[in-house]
Amino acid sequence: MGQIDYSYVTECIERAELGTTEALYDLGLLYSIGQGVDQNFIEAHKWFNLAAINGMKGAQVDRAEIAVDMSNRDISTAQRMAREWLATH
Q1: Residue 24: what pLDDT?
Q2: Which residue, of 11, 41, 66, 72, has the fewest CB within 10 Å?
Q3: Contact between residue 27 and residue 63 where contact means Cβ atoms under 8 Å apart
Q4: Mean pLDDT, the chain cut into blocks of 10 residues (89 residues total)
């Protein structure tokens, strides 16, 4: 196995901070599969939600797919985190 490129995660976060929809979506993907970060469906849902708010249809689909494996509390937490992120960006 090759080494994980953590710089891509850092780059995505930097681009997300600038509001780049694709970076928001990419972070959702990374967290949903655990690529370069610990797998975390709450974080993935948050990032997919933010990308969906910016109009990315694929993010809506992926958000719905991971929501199937999440509790209502987890989804609620992810939505709150997305609102908090929006309030500060």
Answers
A1: 96
A2: 72
A3: no
A4: 69 91 96 94 97 96 97 98 94
Specify if 84 maps to a domain: yes
Q: Helix, strand, or coil here: 54?
A: coil
Q: Return all residues near 68 (Cβ < 8 A) that are at least 6 apart.
A: none
Is 0.85 surpassed by the pTM of this model?
yes
Following CA atoms 50, 76, 38, 24 in sequence, which dihedral angle do they give, to the nearest 10 degrees? 0
φ, ψ of residue 39 to 5 degrees: the values are -60, 130
Residue type at 1 in one-letter notation: M
Helices (H) and strands (E) in the chain, counts: 5, 0
**Structural domain boundaries, residue 53:** 6-88
Q: Is residue 1 part of a domain?
A: no
Q: Which two tokens stand for residue 1?
A: 């196995």
Q: What does the alpha-carbon distance between residue 41 and residue 68 come to, in Å, rounded to a whole number? A: 10
